[in-house]
Amino acid sequence: MKRALAVGIDHYPTMTNLGGCVADAEAVAELLRRNDDGSRNFTVQVLLGTATNPGGVTRGLLRDELGRLFANSRDHDLLFYFAGHGGQTAWGADLMTQDGTHNSPGVSMNDLITLANGSAARSATIILDCCYSGDVGNVAALQPLSIAEQFRHGVAVLRENVVVMTASRPTEPVGEARGHGVFTRVLLAGLEGGATDHLGRITGLGLYEFVSAAFDAWAQRPLLKAHLTEPTVLREGRPWLDVELLRELPQHFPKAKARVRLSPDHEGEGRPFPPGLTGTAEQQQFDYFGRLRNANLLTTDEGRALYWVALEGGEVYLTPIGQYFWDLARRDAL
């Protein structure tokens, strides 16, 4: 089972208001509820802090809801998303709630990690879009105090199958643009399908790789902290190639590095085929190879077009990622 808590706070009675956090939380929740094909995914609860609900997300409420998220969670995949202010204190960084003050901003990021590390959940994914969010999971006693904070390599403690993705380093602020957090805008594009792998899976690792590439060396730097035995699928998107076609790889290639020679019969004539006709076995194989090539699983010498390779009796072969899926198919692991 999968459940998630998404929190977005725009309105802060005692500090500067924000403009995209509520929209961020709502958009993340909407994508998490359903996979791309419409099937159910996470059961999501949303907490919003708006001007019309100025006292809605208090420290007490957020702690209560986090407790509910992580309680009774055996065999569950959990996800927590937060967009709002982040604050720094002498005791570490906090997620700022609407009743926060300078000395007591809200919920400690260390308390959040304590809940995740101590839960019985199968996996826990934490995504934070707030200033100083990279401090989450860092244990003060393990940090090298002889080095200035902005130059330290943080030391975090996570149990197995906990993944943390943050919008910034421990000492960095984050930005908003065009109605969303800069980090979450890219995150949403990844969840919508930009971060899918060949099988259509969107994992925390793939999502971070997608998000990270959007930030240069001079911008806020998203962080990933993870301790994994296997990646958790956060959402199912559209696969690059149907898994049934991947399972056919050993039928066309006797070995992973085998080369298959084409002939003019593979390209054939009379395309597109009339309704109800699929062409000869060679033509069907040619079309299959074309789909593999579109998914970067098959290639030719010098990258030549399949049409000319067939006419000239050339060869096709699997790329390294194609060989990887060939091996999975051979072992019936797909």
Structure commentary:
The chain is of the alpha/beta class and 334 residues long. It folds into two domains: 2-236, Rossmann fold (3-Layer(aba) Sandwich), CATH 3.40.50; 243-330, no CATH class. The chain is built from eleven helices and 16 strands. The strands form five sheets. It has a six-stranded mixed β-sheet with strand order 2-1-3-7-8-12, sandwiched between helices. Helix 4 (182-194) crosses helix 5. The longest helix has 14 residues, at 281-294. It is elongated. The protein starts with a strand and ends with a helix. The model has no long low-confidence stretch (mean pLDDT 91).
Quick structural gist:
By secondary structure, the protein is α/β, with parallel strands linked by helices. The chain has eleven helices and 16 strands. It has two domains: 2-236, Rossmann fold; 243-330, no CATH class.
Question: Secondary-structure element order, as H and E?
Answer: EHEHEEEEHEEEEHEHEEHHEHHEHEH
Record the strand order, biggest sheet: 2-1-3-7-8-12
Question: Taking Cα atoms only, what radius of gyration do you get, to the nearest Å?
Answer: 25 Å
Helix content: 25-40%
Shape: elongated
What is the tally of helical segments?
A: 11
The total count of strands amounts to 16
- Structural class, please? alpha/beta
Q: How far apart lie the N and C ends?
A: 22 Å
Poorly predicted segments: none
Annotated CATH architecture of the largest domain? 3-Layer(aba) Sandwich
Strand content: 15-25%
Q: What integer is the average pLDDT?
A: 91
Number of domains: 2
